[in-house]
Amino acid sequence: MEKPVIAVDAMGGDHAPGEIVKGAVEAVNAFGSRIVLVGRQEDIRSELQKYSYPQDHITIENASEVISTDESPTTAIRRKKDSSMVVGLNLVKQGQAAAFVSAGSTGALLTGATVIIGRIKGIERPALGTMLPTTKGYTFLLDSGANVDCKPAYLVQFAKMATIYVEHVVGKKAPKVGLVNIGSEKEKGDTLSKEAHELLEEVSEINFVGNTEPRDIPYGPVDIVVCDGFVGNVILKLAEGLSQALFGALKEEITKGPYVLAAAALRKPFGKLKRRFDSDEVGGAPFLGLKALVVKAHGSSKAKAIKNAIKQCETFVENDIVLKIQDQL
Amino acid sequence: MEKPVIAVDAMGGDHAPGEIVKGAVEAVNAFGSRIVLVGRQEDIRSELQKYSYPQDHITIENASEVISTDESPTTAIRRKKDSSMVVGLNLVKQGQAAAFVSAGSTGALLTGATVIIGRIKGIERPALGTMLPTTKGYTFLLDSGANVDCKPAYLVQFAKMATIYVEHVVGKKAPKVGLVNIGSEKEKGDTLSKEAHELLEEVSEINFVGNTEPRDIPYGPVDIVVCDGFVGNVILKLAEGLSQALFGALKEEITKGPYVLAAAALRKPFGKLKRRFDSDEVGGAPFLGLKALVVKAHGSSKAKAIKNAIKQCETFVENDIVLKIQDQL
Q1: Would you place residue B268 in the very low, low, confident or very high pLDDT band (cuts 50, 70, 90)?
Q2: How far apart are CA A72 and CA A76, in angstroms?
Q3: CA spacing 20 to 30 A to B20: which of A286, A311, B182, B322?
Q4: How is residue A206 annotated by DSSP?
Q5: Which residues of A touch B235 (CB under 8 A)?
Q6: Does A271 contact chain B (CB < 8 Å)?
């Protein structure tokens, strides 16, 4: 079967366009992907010249503008009609591409995707999912930051969408769903989590196992954790920051004086440990609940992350996830 | 000046009564503390016999019952009138002790303290503060779990109480206060944080520096972070869980095969790193906003943590913190 066309924002992220273009080429060479690179034609072309790949698998869609991370999302999407982000999202809207990957501004991408591609009818709030590293592998966190002030019913939709995504894209059957809460008992927590708990218990299509306490999340007791986007973003960003801070402090302690040699001998297992807690391995964050998939790749994405995000889009499209979400509303 | 009498729950926590009694003795010998140990007289007496210390510095208040962590807090406080916790809190209420330390059930302690000792008039919600380890030292987190569904005005009181506590007990002048939020700009976040931000800007008694993003918290950019107790508890417990998980994964990676020797050579810096992120060093979590100080020591507290919690109570009492909080309402 021919691969679906994936649009990729060549201008978004800290390492654009170099690493983005490189990731696209790697996807083409590894999976036979078909890609539209969106952005400044000249820049993209000069990057592409560095590589060899089947030429008919990559096309360029010119876009003269770039949305930066410090612009107001709403204003940027409204005004910069010829930005790589808006042009890329329009390719998906018009059916010229099946999904869109960008490592650019999260706010602009979520706003643009909702406005241009639009929600699946019946979905109250599209939500951003992130694969959170754990000692066992990964836990899918939804919502990780798209929606604050959630209502209990939103969390039920998050649980349903996450279940479909994890079953078919991650490939884990009947994934366990936990509700983030500050206590294991049903009656614990704030108003939102108490009410969401009640509702989640009644949903037959998901494998709801009750509350998951933040202390346990890093050990991966469940496949999916659902929560309000404020709490989800706190979890995601605190976990990233703390991992970095701890690895940094470790390095500081052992790369001085008498420990340098022993530390050097441990370079390999340290590297392995860092990779275990590295999000580059698993592609990007899917924005679920829209009429097509939009993936937010990390701002610091390098080629490997982009390549994996493209693969993730293909699996999503090939498994008709949008249709499956629609069917479960 | 004679030390204030501190009541200590000898029966609370994973290592009670042994480590609790030991911690009390260490405080007496190190600081000249005066202590009432509350709990089963026989058990306490047989522990005390192991040590030498000035006998007139420790008295025992008998209490026949113990509240366990799996009991309903409200029911336990109401029914177990002769528990070490209720008896200890009553000692404070009656003025026989100036503060109370317990490593027992958090829920029961917060409930009991609020009911028995009571709030300072004008304080809407007493809040639990925790010293969160960072790469620079510690950040004081308030509320770390006592109050969910907070109103913006509560967070302002948290910021004021935290400022007084950190100035006088921790000893940091004009401590920087950050509001936990998922973005650095004022207009970011959920309804609570947007409204709290507005209010905090207007408080002249505190050194409010704006939003603090969860990613930055582990690096200690501020001395105090304020937030709703649900979010605070997520931060506290996720940080604890993730640190443990990362240290565990590190150990797993380096204590096998060819790395054993190098790992052994690094035992000292690893230990130093663990201690940097160890909460035992800083006593317990103060429950602020009551007519007297109640300190929740970690359930896993050993002697050192209890000793430090006793010192913390003395500093609190000697600095008239309750009066200072009253004056700022």
Answers
A1: confident
A2: 6
A3: B322
A4: S
A5: 214, 234, 238
A6: no
CA distances for A218 relative to A140, B176, B240, B245, B267, angstroms: 12, 30, 10, 6, 24
In order, the DSSP letters of B245-275 are HHHHHHHHHHSSGGGHHHHHHTHHHHHHHHH
Q: What confidence tier does A279 reach under pLDDT thresholds 50, 70, 90?
A: low
Q: What is the full DSSP assignment across A66-88?
A: ---TTS-HHHHHHH-TTBHHHHH
Return the sign of the alpha-carbon dihedral for residues A52, A54, A55, A60.
negative
Structure tokens at B260: 């054993």
Please check whether residue B44 is in contact with residue B17, taking contact to mean a CB–CB distance below 8 angstroms.
yes
Residue of B nearest to A132 (CA): B242
**Secondary-structure breakdown of chain B: helix, strand, coil percentages, each rounded to the nearest 5:** 50, 15, 35
Of B235, B237, B248, the CB nearest to A135: B248
Mean pLDDT of chain A: 95
Average pLDDT over residues B256-263: 82
**Residue whose pair of structure tokens reads 């008295």 in the numeric block:** B59
Question: Using DSSP, how many helices (H) and how many strands (E) does chain A show?
Answer: 12, 12
Closest of B146, B239, B152 to residue B189, by C-alpha = B152
Per-residue confidence (pLDDT) for residue B276, from 0 to 100: 79
Copy the structure tokens of residue B265.
């050579």
Q: What is the C-alpha to C-alpha distance for residues A36 and A160, in angstroms, rounded to an integer?
A: 31
Residue A179 pairs with which residues in a beta bridge? A211, A226
CA-only gyration radius of chain A, Å = 20
Give how far A266 is from chain B: nearest CA, Å: 7
**Each residue's pLDDT tens digit, A98-156:** 999 999 999 999 999 999 999 999 999 999 999 999 999 999 999 999 999 999 999 99
Res. A278: pLDDT tops 80 = no
Task: Give tens-digit pLDDT for B129-159.
Answer: 999 999 999 999 999 999 999 999 999 999 9
The answer to whether B112 and B80 have CB atoms below 8 angstroms apart is no
Q: Rounded to a whole number, what is the distance in Å from the CA of B194 to chain A's nearest CA? A: 11
Q: Helix A18-31 and helix A41-48: axis angle, to 10°?
A: 50
Q: What is the mean pLDDT of residues B22-42?
A: 98
Interface of B with A in 126-155 (CB under 8 A): 134-135, 145, 148-149
| Model confidence at A250: pLDDT above 90 | no
Give how far Cα A44 sits from Cα of A2, A19, A57, A294, Å: 24, 11, 14, 21
Inter-chain CB proximity B218 and A242 less than 8 Å: yes
How much is the pLDDT for B281? 62
Model pLDDT, residue B280: 61
Q: Is A246 on the interface with B (CB under 8 A)?
A: yes
